[in-house]
Amino acid sequence: MYLSRLQLQNWRTYSDAVFEFEAPSERRSVVLVGAMNGHGKTSFLLSLYLGLFGRFGLRHCEGFAAYDSNQDFKTYRDAITKFRRNTADSFEPTIIDITLTPSYRDSSDEEEVRVVRRWYFSGRNKPKQGPAFEEVDIYVGGRLQKQTTLDKDPILLAHERVERNLFEAHVAPAFFFDGGQAQKLIESQGERGLKKAVEVMFGTKVVEELAETMNQYLLRMRQTTGGRRRCSEQQQELEEKLKERDLLNQQIGKKQDDLHKLETEKEKKEQQRTQLQEELARMGGMNNLSYAQVQADYVRAEKEQTDAEKALGNLIRQMGLALAISRLAPAIQNRLRAEALREDWESLKRGTIDNREKVLAAALPEPDPILGEISLQTRTALRDRFAEALESIYNPPPTNCADTFLLGHVKGDARSRVLHLLTQAQSLGAARIKTATKKARDAHDAFDEAKRRKERMQDVPEATQQIRQSLDTINGEIQQNIHGIGAIENELKVLKANLHELNKRIGEIREQLARLGPEQQRIAVAERICRALEELQDSLQPTTTARLESYVTRHFVNIADRRFWSAKVSLAPGQPPRLCFGNGRPEMLLETNSGFERRAFGIAFTLALAEITHRRVPLVIDTPIGNADSEYRLRTLKALADFDLDQIIILTHDKEVTPDLVEHIRGQISQKFLVEYQESENLSTVQPNCYFTR
Amino acid sequence: MKAPPCFEDSESKKIIRTICEQHRIDIELLKDLCEIVNVHAGSGRRFGLPEDIEAVLDRFIKNGKES
To answer: Mean per-residue pLDDT for A523-533?
Structure first.
């Protein structure tokens, strides 16, 4: 925002003067207003205080610092009468017309603000009485704001609007001031003055005032509202429970973080373990078995193999005959059966032969009733024929009958037993042998595998041992993680149960409080606000001071001579401002420095305030460099010209910002004015685009 | 009137927000109250201040921000 227009009518030595200021550009922010002493520089500055803020700006004028704007109307009227152009006609009002316009850097919702303040006088230039004395018109965005409401003083209403649209009256000296004020800021008030400026500019003063206001409000409410004790007790319990809940939530949050951390760790370790196991498997053909386990497996497999072999040996010994003949069993069985058949056949045949004489005797009796008396020769021939016929009954031998007896020593029952044994050997014996053999073979295979593992284990390199050790370690850690997770989960269960109970109780108290009524609810909120504000005041101060120290140092070093280039400004609470140096150089109290250094510090402080508070309002400085030496002048002027503000209006006389000095900041000057005073007419006139000449 | 600069400055705003959270109040509530104090202090008048404060408190309570 920049000052775009200032019209002064019947104000000090100005009869009707207008300053029209051009919109600033990014590079050109400096406006020079040249005027010799007594020609109208201070009038310009005072017009801003009083034109914008009326009686609320009077305390910023020299000689009125103690003025009480709420009580003392007479002093204000007298002051305005004094500032009024003394040659003005009494019917002509004194008018200050100020327009502040948003710059290209302001937000789009900013609007132009114009304040027109008029003071009216009666005969012999006496101020008019009562509300007829003063009138204020405010235009926002070109629209005249309504002046009166039924319940508000129009001047107060106007003032409220000015402050709402611009800034508070009490911060005006931070933007509109003379160099002497900057110096006095240090000289007269020291640390207290600085603190006040920071508080006002940064808003901490408002916080302090709000704290005081809220405390008063609380006091009033407690006095007028019944049921305070009950409300306070419940509120207090609620506060305690809420704090307890916050703490509990923090604990739960922390435990959940811990749990998450442990779970993540466990997951990572399990991944590591898998990787190590895979690596070990690649190297040793095993998973995470320990050497001892492999050794035990080997011993067990060896024993199992021995046992199986022993069992097989015993069985073979037991089943030796059966085993021996088991392969020939079918042939032997067939042979024995054939020989048995032969034996039967031969037995029958032999029986027939043995009974031949009886059969012949029966077949050829003597005498033969059929054949009668036959000769011996015939009888013998008949007998032979008959005997031959008998023998032919058993010839040839039956099918499958053995030709001869190869196993002639096994006969009768012995043959039957052998056949039985052979059948057993074929069925039971073979199965048992088969099972025992399989068992022995499996045991042998298992032993071979165990042996191979053992051999691999014996051959594994040192790296494998390390992997095994790492695996053992990780397994241990995972176990610890699992224990830890379990413990935290249990703790969380307890904490959540407590939280549940707490929430239940908080709900009950809130229900009780809600039934208490709006007054108690307001008290409850106001109490919390008071506590927050109390804490806020303690917390904001150190942060603000540190930032301010940094900014003031930068601006001061920029202006001051080389003796101070390594200085750091200290604004420690309870102490006057001081300059600190490194390298063992002693600290310096600012008040012990020369006048201009103190003035430079004041300007640096103002610039720092503007910076820390982000105020984009015009800076109007009356005689900023005073009687400083040429080097100081140049540095101060450059510091002001380089400062990132929309507009910097410098009110100066011809020996201060001289034409030669102006050359150094020519590129940053947007406009120049020359105010000339004609003593004969007691009149100051404004010459745009003019300045002092060499 | 804009909020006090300390409510706009990033560093101090962080501090204010933290404290507000701790005390379960709204940063906007504080801003509104600051504005009321500013308006009344700037104009030098005290009448109507409790009513203005109550209006802000009631709005806060009504909006359910009271926790």
So the answer is: 89
A290 Cβ contact list (under 8 Å, min separation 6): A468, A472
Cβ-defined contact of A207 to B54 (cutoff 8 Å): no
pLDDT at B66 over 70: no
Higher pLDDT, A9 or A319: A9
Q: How far does B14 lie from chain A, in Å, by closest CA?
A: 10
Q: What is the pLDDT of residues A253-270, one digit of tens each?
A: 999 999 999 988 988 988
Contacts of residue A393, Cβ cutoff 8 Å, sequence gap at least 6: A352
Q: In chain B, what residues touch A544 (CB-CB under 8 Å)?
A: 6, 12
Q: Measured between CB atoms, does B49 come within 8 Å of chain A?
A: yes
Long-range contacts of A269-276 (CB under 8 A, 24+ apart): A269/A474, A269/A477, A269/A478, A269/A481, A270/A478, A272/A474, A273/A471, A273/A474, A273/A475, A273/A478, A276/A467, A276/A470, A276/A471, A276/A474
Chain B interface disruption, residue of A207, A222, A611, most B CBs within 10 A: A207
Q: Could you give the CA distance from residue A656 to residue A596 in angstroms, rounded to a whole number?
A: 13
pLDDT at A287: 46
**pLDDT tens digits, A135-147:** 999 888 888 887 6
For position A288, what pLDDT does the model report? 47
Distance CA A95, CA A5 (A): 13
Q: How many angstroms separate the CA of residue A615 from the nearest CA in chain B?
A: 9
The label of the residue with tokens 């590591």 reads: A272
Pick A119 or A240 by higher pLDDT.
Answer: A119
Closest C-alpha to A207, from B39, B30, B1: B30
How confident is residue A21, by pLDDT bands cut at 50, 70 and 90?
very high
Cβ contacts of A529 on chain B, cutoff 8 Å: 23, 25, 29-30, 33
Q: Among residues 11-40 of chain B, which lie with CB inside 8 Å of chain A?
A: 11-12, 15-16, 19-20, 22-25, 29-30, 33-34, 37-39
Average pLDDT along chain A: 83
Distance of alpha carbon A592 from alpha carbon A595, whole angstroms:
9
Is the CB of residue A117 less than 8 Å from the CB of residue A51? yes
Q: Residue A540 pLDDT > 70, yes or no?
A: yes
CA nearest neighbour of A5 among A27, A28, A31: A31
Q: Percent of chain A beyond pLDDT 70?
A: 88
Pairing status of strand A30-35 against strand A648-652: parallel
Residue contact B9–A614, C-beta within 8 A: yes
Query: Between the CA of residue A391 and those of A385, A428, A556, A641, what are the distances in Å?
Result: 10, 45, 157, 160
* Amino acid A626: pLDDT: 81
- The answer to whether the CB of A620 falls within 8 A of the CB of A640 is no
Question: Can you point out the beta strands (E) in A264-365?
Answer: none
CB A653 within 8 Å of CB A35: yes
Q: A272 is written with which tokens?
A: 């590591």
Structure-block tokens of residue B27: 């940063």
